[in-house]
User: Fold this.
Amino acid sequence: MFIDVNKIGPEGVDVDTNLDLPELEGPSGEPLQVRSNTLVAKVVKSSKGAEIKGRLDAVVQVVCSRCLEGMEETVQAGFSLLAVPETAEGEAAEVVDDPEEEGYRESLLTVTDGRLDLAAVAQEQIYLNLSRKPICSRECRGLCTGCGVNRNNAECSCDQEEIDPRLAPLLKFRKN
Ligand SMILES: [Zn+2]
Ligand SMILES: [Zn+2]
Assistant:
């Protein structure tokens, strides 16, 4: 869904929508399915382009970093972005350097042909807010270092040495 920045009236544009998002890519190149999402935002004209403030709620299918089982992660992000035309990046830098606008320092969005792409906004918010190391539960016991069994589901006869859960994903490969 796109908003034409040049056609925003004085009252602004209210957005409350579920977007069609493509499959995303996780930190190891794994596919991340976005199960559901809701973007609620207000877009208003600003001197250089547009300002979009709102929140994104999404549920993303990810993989537990300890036991490698699929799980859902909920993303809840509030954001405030300054959308500026691509051709005005130099001017945008001036805007960002304005101390009054300091909050926008990391939240600049370029707009091509006056079209503000809401799906791109939603995707960026998902990437910014997803856990680097999702875990299915605080009690997740991960994979056994000896045999690679998922210790949440089965006991095995290996010595139960405590392992660093950060190493667990490697065990799957060692097993093979
Ligand atoms: Zn787990
Ligand atoms: Zn084992």
In short: DSSP finds three helices and eight strands in the chain. The first strand starts at residue 2 and ends at 4. The two ends are 44 Å apart (CA to CA). The chain has two domains: 2-129, 141-176.
